[in-house]
Structure formats: C-alpha cells, structure tokens
Amino acid sequence: MNDRSDKLFSARLSDMVSTAERNGTYAFSMFLDERQCAEAEMWCRRNIGELKYMLWGGFPDARRKMLAVYPYYCEEYVKEDYPFVCITFTYRREDRLTHRDFLGTFMGMQLKREVIGDIVVAEGETQVFATEVAARLITSTVSKIGRTGVKVCDDKPFELETEQEYKKISGTVASLRLDCIVSLAAHISRENAAKLIRSDKVDVNHFTASSLSQELHEGDTVSVRGSGRYILSGVNGVSSKGRIHIDLLKYI
User: Fold this and answer.
1) Among 8, 24, 212, 242, which one has the highest count of C-beta atoms within 10 angstroms of its own C-beta?
2) What CA–CA distance (Å, rounded) separates 78 from 54?
3) Is 176 left (phi over 0), alpha (psi -120 to 50) or beta?
C-alpha cells in the first residue's frame, strides 16, 4: 500500500470501531487479502481499546478474510453472523475448471474483488465464499463458468480439502539476509535478487521489503514477483565453509 491507501484503510477501520461502539454489535469489513489482513491485525492490536476483533474467511486456512470488530458479549456467536455465503458449484469431473476460470466469470459480472473470498477448486466441485449480496447475484444468474455448465447452490457447508502443496528447496546461503534467500529461492544471482528487492517486487510476511539486509527467520514467508511464494521452513546448521543450510517450501 502507498501512504494514501494506508490512510484510507486506517480510516475504514476507524469507522468500523465507531460503528461497533455506537451500535453495540458487529461491524464487518469486506473481504481482505493477506496483506490487508496483516495490516488490519496490526492496527487492531493498537487501536480498538476494549472491543474484540476476528479475521475469518469461512475455514481455518482461508487466505481472504473479513474483519469483524465487536463488543466482548458478541464473541460467542461471531462466526455464525459473518455476512458471507458458501456457494457450491458442481460440474463434470472431466471439466478441468481453474481458480482463474471462476474469478474471470465473477469479474465479468462487474463484481469487485472485495466481495469474493477464497475460491477452492476440486475435481467436479468448487466452493466459493462471497458476500450475501454477491452470492444472491451469482446463484441467480450463473449457469456456466466459461463454456462449462455448472449447477449452483448455497445450502452446502464448506467441505473441500484445502491442504497446501509445496515443493521443497534445500541449499546453502552466506547469511539469512533477504537477498541471499531470494537468490536461492528464485535461482538468480544476489545482484538480480537485490534488483527485485529495490524494485518493490519482494514481500516478506505480506509487506513490501525495503532492505536487502533484512534478516529472515524460520516461518517467514517471502513472495517474489514472477517466481512464487516461499516459506523459510528450516535453518539447519553451518557447513565447514561457514555457509548456512536452509530449507524452503515453495507454494505450488
């Protein structure tokens, strides 16, 4: 985010707090992406006072989530009251639909990205989270995704497997500096890794990296534009030449 969008985002969160305090009930955001979720979490920790907050996207590993801000006495029922719907699409197993196919259909309907949550695709079935208004439009008008006929319903619970698959990358680095990690992850020189970082094309834990020398730790997530997303999953000691053995997991 730039400074202007940061201020607008903070203003929206402040409005949510005011609404929750004034009405004594929940205030909900639209769907937030992973970076916005991280921003919202940091902001809430500093600014919501005695209110509570929750980020939820319909299942534990959801990437896109809504923020709820609410008084403590609403906490027991907050997940049940989130204003989104799980939509289930069924189709022939041989029709290989993708996340992009579904998102393209929704964008073609002039729906904004913020009204659509996670899209989980399986063989012959896809489940999508959408705001209540968007869900009504989708269920009443969509009968095809691309050229593929689909059946649509909004009365099934979320049931698809969401386990992330990874490719393991092992190697050694001179240090745990960001430029070293990016070099190994993307199979490029440290010089080219440095260029990517300086061009704001690398994120660490969903925030744009600003320093080549930022030190990473186990569990940190690195996104490299044009290459992919990685988790620093292991730091495994030092070689006889002083290089550090590390493991990365690449999202696939």
Assistant:
1) 212
2) 8
3) alpha
Say which residue the tokens 């006495």 belong to: 73
- Distance, in Å, from the CA atom of 208 to the CA atom of 196, rounded to the nearest integer, reads 11
CA-to-CA separations, 84 to 28, 161, 208, in angstroms, rounded: 10, 20, 29
pLDDT band at 76 (very low <50, low <70, confident <90, very high): confident
Q: How many residues in the chain?
A: 252
How big is the CA angle at 204 (ends 60 and 187), to the nearest 5 degrees? 110
Backbone phi, then psi, for 33, in 5-degree steps? -80, 180
Write the pLDDT tens digit of every residue in 12-49: 999 999 999 999 999 999 999 999 999 999 999 999 99
Strand partners, 108: none
Asked whether residue 1 carries a pLDDT value surpassing 60, the answer given is no
Other Cβ atoms within 10 Å of 233 Cβ, number: 17
pLDDT at 4 over 80: no
Taking only the tens place, the pLDDT of each residue in 124-145 is: 999 999 999 999 999 999 999 9
pTM of the full structure? 0.83
Task: Return all residues near 252 (Cβ < 8 A) that are at least 6 apart.
Answer: 165, 166, 167
Tracing tokens 């609403």 back to the chain, one arrives at: 74
As a whole number, the mean pLDDT across the chain is 94
For helices 190-198 and 178-186, the axis angle rounded to 10 degrees is: 110
Comparing CA positions, the residue from 137, 117, 138 lying closest to residue 128 is 117
Q: Where does residue 32 rank: exposed (0-12), middle (13-18), buried (19+ CB within 10 A)?
A: buried
